[in-house]
Amino acid sequence: MVPEPEPLLILPGGYFAERGSFFQFKFRPRPDFRTCFIFVAMGQKKLIRFEAIKSFPNVLQYPEGTAGKWDVFFKNDHPIVLELACGKGEYAVGLATLYPERNFIGVDIKGNRIYIGAKKCLTEKITNAAFLRTQIERIDEYFAKGEVSEIWMTFPDPQLRVSRAKKRLTHPRFLRLYQKILVPGGLIHLKTDSPVLYEFTRMVIEMYGLDLHEYSENIYAEGFIKNELQIKTYYEGLDIARSNKIYYICFAIPEIDLPLLDHDLLERARKNEAGID
Q1: CATH fold group of domain 59-272
Q2: How many CB atoms lie within 10 A of CB 34?
Q3: Fewer CB atoms inside 10 A, N or C side of the chain?
Q4: Positions of the chain with pLDDT under 70
């Protein structure tokens, strides 16, 4: 059975009950008294989820010794596909359903979000998807060279301020990490509603001589949409960028040392994105 977070019962006097126990908490008076209760309940829900994923067999948290051994974990040698910044894991789970002959790993730092996708996999017996809780900056610690066949990034934080461009998942500092773990010619997919992140990624592909395979500035305006692009995430539904467009780009990193143009890249980005920072 998959552990299910138990609801909190808010009682008079600042008490709440959870799992049959009573606790008292203190908080500063606020005009919206109900909001205080909701805030505490939401915080407790996160803690319950963090505790639950410790026992999930399909969730690994900061593991050691996984590089080169994912075939042991999955009990097969099928190709491995990553979803970086996976959030609730909708894409990892959706792709795993579409392609049972591949293994999918959602990577994110936020365990309370990973819980959603991991629980769905356990409930629906989806065995070719798993979740890795760690920082993406450390991704090369968990996979051996050539162990990953593809990488997906779906609606990652576009880091709109140019001063934070180094945190964009298609920035060369991340591409150099991906290059260490991808098979030669391994594809990288970006799906986003951010025109800023899309144009930045196009700029990176041009400046660093990457291999552009496919792109679309509005996938839902295309006559034919591939099955994997029809998967929708929670963040796509929010339409945070208000662009009314979903951008897609697919590219590969050639087997060369990427040029040291990071400073020039940021200068070009600053000019292109003037007014955002």
Answers
A1: Rossmann fold (3.40.50)
A2: 9
A3: N
A4: 1-43, 239-243, 275-277
